[in-house]
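@channel sequence for tomorrow's demo:
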Amino acid sequence: MATPTMQGAQSGAQVGAQVGRSLPRIEAREKVTGRAEYTHTMRLPGMLHAKIFRSTVAHGRIKSIDVSAARKVPGVYRVVTSDDVRKVIPDPYYGPAFHDQPILAIGKVHYVGEPVAAVLAADPHVAEEAAQLIVADYEELPAVIDEVEATENKTLVHEELKPAGTFADLKHLKGRKGTNIALDFKLRRGDVDKAFAEAAQVFEHTFRTQKVLHVALEPYASIADWKDTGVTIYSAAQGPSFVRTEIARGRGAPHSGFALLMSRIS
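structure tokens (generated this afternoon):
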């Protein structure tokens, strides 16, 4: 009869046996032979492509958006702004930690590159051409470009904090106004002054680093395939639970009536 110690040893041996071995990835053959299908390369019957018109200023109020020239381009199916989105979703903000990202900019823009309008066309090149014809007029506002200065800056990125509810330690921030600080946390343990006084050497430095992104080869992409029986969404996102929750919340309906499929991620 095996003792608990012996069982633990056998279990450890099984896990340790993987170390030093070359284990083929399940999807490796499909990827290296070019047969793997990604969201970005998928094509469905009757599919429309969306191209985004983005903000060129870091912070500003939207005075006007002129989409008339874009609508006149042959092949354009529709041009969409936040006014159109809000007819379907009254409060179209999303985000994993805070609901601070509008689907399309509402009233103001918060950073260079923020989506302001979208052009739909069967030909992606037509949609791209039309998107470049959109003209937006902004009242530029002071921008927050330094994260340290932002803590005491009177220029606010968001007028009010709206925690998404995903993280329990953010819920107390609901409704907080007049600040750029998204989270404050204090840790008190031991006698800090005494520890510094007894230290052999005390170093004081300021460290800065650039923005870091994991630079995936595949662009962000999603496809919604609507039928009378429901909607199937294909997404390149790596967090299906978050995507599913936000889609259901935006629709104002439970997690039914749509299917979410995560394709290969490159």
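heads up for whoever presents: The chain has two domains: 39-143+216-262, 144-208.
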